[in-house]
UniProtKB/TrEMBL annotation:
This is Uncharacterized protein. It comes from the Eukaryota. It comes from Kickxella alabastrina.
């Protein structure tokens, strides 16, 4: 796991772990040859910051004059800032595996460091871009507070945080209803958040466009 700047003093050390998985070659994602303009992006709701972007979050907390034991300003439950920020990351393996086995998902992008901007292109062919509609879901309160308290631009939010979407799936139009219904039925929050577009790679052309961030 990444070392966090400012958390390790001289003489401290950390322990890193890893997991190894096995997959049949025919089941490997993304299926790049099948992904193209016209495919749909389905987003899965996150549980919070998801252990990512904390260097910026810590700066915003300090800038706001708060500590991690301070009462959380974006919640009503009375939790501390630290407790709210340490909400466990949502893991999507169990609800996604049946859909993967049905071959109705072409690709999956885990929205971690780099937000939408850096993570979604990892599962796309070079000739394909993504168009995302930020009005398709509600920005969680923690991100509204970070944006407001830190004066963070919407573009910076979209390339730093998950902004409420922890996983993005690439799905053919004819399979969208199946995927969304199955995920919502398993307790997830699934949203159709946009689609794939042709990408020419022209100078100044954005490969991932996040529209309608005005309400953020």
């Amino acid at each position: 796991t990444a070392e966090m700047p400012g958390l390790y003093a001289e003489g401290d050390y950390d322990v890193a772990g890893f997991a190894v998985g096995a997959v049949e070659r025919s089941q490997i994602l993304p299926r790049m040859s099948e992904i193209g303009a016209g495919d749909v992006l389905v987003g899965l709701g996150s549980s919070g910051v998801h252990s990512n972007g904390f260097s910026l979050v810590r700066k915003v907390v300090a800038h706001a004059g708060l500590g991690f034991h301070s009462r959380c300003p974006w919640e009503q439950q009375g939790r501390s800032v630290g407790e709210a920020l340490l909400t466990p990351t949502r893991i999507y393996v169990k609800p996604l595996l049946p859909l993967i086995h049905q071959r109705v998902i072409k690709g999956m992008a885990h929205i971690t460091g780099g937000g939408f901007t850096d993570n979604i292109p990892r599962v796309l062919p070079k000739s394909v871009g993504a168009d995302i509609d930020a009005e398709a879901w509600e920005l969680p309160e923690v991100f509204k507070w970070v944006k407001r308290a830190g004066g963070v631009a919407a573009e910076e939010m979209a390339r730093t945080f998950n902004c409420g979407i922890g996983m993005v799936l690439v799905v053919a139009p004819e399979h969208v209803r199946t995927v969304v219904d199955a995920l919502n039925g398993s307790g997830e929050q699934a949203y159709v958040i946009g689609g794939l577009t042709a990408f020419g790679g022209e100078q100044g052309e954005e490969r991932v466009v996040v529209r309608n961030t005005g309400k953020w």
